[in-house]
């Protein structure tokens, strides 16, 4: 967010505008009141001079003549045709006088300057004070926003520590903390359920694997063994996800030559991929977890995309690309979700491969991102630290 678009400076700008409007209104009222008072005093002085004895000020202005009535009447007129040398006229049927109002005009202009200077001084004091006063609630709001971002990134232990108070910011902070606690409880319940289901399935699954191996060879037996194998992989994946969700995994880092490692990893998958290596990059990482990440990405590219599958190693960045329909928009927007495979053209599966890859990348401190290539195809990028 731009500094000048922050709530702090918006409050300061609002205070400045409000103070300016008040200063302008007060200045206009004071100016008008002082002007009317000066005109009233000028008329009194002119009438007093007229009663003392009319002088010969020269030809009477048409505006003053028009104001004169019959015998015994008098009239006054403020002559500001020359804005720097104003006069106050008074006349009756016997004569007329005019009083110099230049001194009053200069006093009025000096008063206007003093009002402007005083208003500017007050604004120069009020605006910084308003900005300082707005900093405390602004800081509290920033803390709430940081906590909300941490929660959105998966840190459900984050709390705002709102403290006591009855204002709206405290209410928002308390609501964020309550939401985080509720999400944390739901996620933990889901993780426990996943782990319990996977553990409970292992025993009967081992029995199925053993029974399938004892069946006589044949087409039906191969089909049963294939399905049992799929089920075994699913259960193992669920167990791995439960361990990753529980934060029970840690990385064992060693120096890994990424070029040869990528080639060996692709070879172990039994799938084809064009491996391109730039230079001789080496990274400090956990080779077992990196192998899991890269293998899942290559398998996902073959299962859900089209060939050729390309693996490119440049520095500490590994990119896996296929030439299929690309990743679905929900995955690009929200990231991999377990048991969600996206659109039908991306193939079939349980949606666990990318979820596991994302979890393992988090363990080794890598960044795993997903995108679609401009020319078509899905692109998964692993950036090692």
TrEMBL record:
PROSITE patterns: HAMP (PS50885), HIS_KIN (PS50109). One of its GO terms (molecular function) is ATP binding. Residues 139-188 form the HAMP domain. It catalyses: ATP + protein L-histidine = ADP + protein N-phospho-L-histidine. Keywords: ATP-binding, Cell membrane, Kinase, Membrane, Nucleotide-binding, Phosphoprotein, Transferase, Transmembrane, Transmembrane helix, Two-component regulatory system. It is an enzyme of class 2 (transferase). GO terms for cellular component: plasma membrane. SUPFAM superfamilies: ATPase domain of HSP90 chaperone/DNA topoisomerase II/histidine kinase, HAMP domain-like, Homodimeric domain of signal transducing histidine kinase. It is found in: Cell membrane. Its main location: membrane. Its EC number is 2.7.13.3. It is a multi-pass membrane protein. The chain crosses the membrane at residues 12-31, 115-136. Residues 196-385 form the Histidine kinase domain. It holds the Pfam family HATPase_c. PANTHER family: SENSOR PROTEIN CREC. This is histidine kinase. It comes from Herbidospora galbida.
């Amino acid at each position: 967010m731009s500094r000048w678009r922050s709530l702090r400076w918006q409050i300061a700008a609002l205070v400045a505008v409000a103070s300016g409007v008040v200063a302008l209104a007060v200045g206009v009222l004071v100016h008008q009141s002082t002007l009317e008072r000066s005109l009233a005093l000028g008329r009194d002085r002119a009438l007093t001079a007229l009663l003392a004895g009319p002088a010969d000020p020269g030809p009477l202005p048409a505006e003053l003549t028009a104001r004169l009535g019959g015998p015994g009447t008098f009239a006054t007129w403020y002559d500001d045709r020359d804005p720097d040398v104003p006069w106050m006229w008074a006349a009756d049927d016997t004569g007329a006088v005019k009083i110099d109002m230049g001194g009053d005009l200069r006093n009025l202009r000096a008063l206007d300057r003093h009002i402007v200077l005083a208003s500017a001084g007050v604004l120069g004091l009020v605006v910084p004070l308003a900005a300082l006063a707005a900093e405390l609630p602004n800081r509290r709001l920033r803390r709430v926003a940081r906590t909300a971002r941490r929660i959105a990134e998966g840190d459900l232990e984050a709390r705002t520590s709102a403290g006591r108070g009855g204002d709206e910011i405290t209410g928002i902070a308390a609501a964020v903390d309550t939401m985080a606690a509720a999400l944390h409880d739901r996620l933990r319940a889901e993780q426990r359920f996943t782990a319990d289901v996977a553990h409970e399935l292992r025993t009967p699954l081992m029995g199925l694997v053993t029974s399938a191996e004892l069946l006589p060879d044949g087409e039906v037996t191969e089909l049963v063994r294939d399905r049992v194998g799929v089920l075994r992989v699913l259960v193992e994946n669920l167990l791995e996800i439960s361990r990753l969700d529980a934060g029970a995994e840690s990385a064992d880092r060693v120096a890994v030559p990424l070029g040869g490692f990528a080639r060996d990893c692709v070879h172990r998958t039994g799938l084809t991929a064009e491996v391109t290596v730039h230079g001789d990059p080496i990274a400090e990482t956990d080779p077992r977890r990196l192998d899991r990440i890269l293998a899942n990405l290559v398998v996902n590219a073959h299962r859900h995309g089209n060939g050729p599958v390309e693996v490119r190693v440049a520095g500490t960045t590994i990119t896996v690309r296929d030439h299929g329909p690309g990743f679905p928009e929900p995955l690009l927007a929200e990231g991999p979700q377990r048991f969600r495979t996206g659109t039908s053209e991306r193939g079939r599966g349980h949606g666990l491969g990318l979820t596991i890859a994302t979890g393992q990348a988090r363990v080794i401190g890598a960044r795993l991102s997903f995108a679609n290539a401009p020319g078509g195809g899905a692109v998964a990028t692993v950036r090692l630290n």
